[in-house]
Write a structure and sequence with these properties.
Layout (H helix, E strand, L loop, with lengths): L1 H13 L8 E9 L5 E9 L6 E9 L8 E7 L11 E6 L2 E5 L5 E3 L3 E4 L2 E8 L12 H9 L2
């Protein structure tokens, strides 16, 4: 009987996403002008009672087994009155810019080191993107791909 209960609990816990648990989707990426670093934007969705969260990760372009470097997180970031998200831009090979209109919470370091290279992280809030589609970035990416 204990084994059956343990199996049932395991199945319930492992099906969290199917039952409306949190998700984590890659929604955007941008390669640095020199091609050495990739910025990846992940969108998290905890469900109907939460806003979208955004995680920025930087990876060396050659992916030589290094773990991604955390380059910040934002919660409730919006690009317009109806569009959630963040736009990634590289000003130059050493400066990644995060553009958005506003965010409820933000934790972004001034710089990080990726594969021995220092990358400055700049934040530009108050930057509306009226061409961004309404809703979360993951939902719009799926619709754009026709999936």
């Amino acid at each position: 009987m204990r084994t059956q209960i343990a199996i049932l609990l395991f199945l319930l816990v492992s099906c969290t996403d199917a039952l409306g648990g949190s998700s984590r989707d890659e929604v955007a990426w941008a390669k640095s002008p020199d091609g050495r670093v990739h910025a990846i934007l992940l969108e998290t969705n905890g469900g109907a009672t939460t806003s979208f969260g955004y995680l920025i990760e930087l990876h060396p372009a050659d992916h030589q087994g290094e773990k991604p470097v955390n380059a910040g997180s934002l919660y409730g970031a919006v690009r317009s009155d109806c569009a959630y998200g963040i736009d990634l831009h590289w000003n130059d090979a050493n400066t990644l810019v995060l553009r958005f209109d506003s965010a409820k919470k933000m934790d972004v370091p001034a710089s990080v080191t990726v594969a021995g290279k220092r990358i400055r992280i700049a934040v530009e809030d108050g930057m509306k993107n009226e061409s961004a589609p309404c809703g979360g970035m993951a939902a719009n990416r799926v619709a754009a791909n026709g999936s």
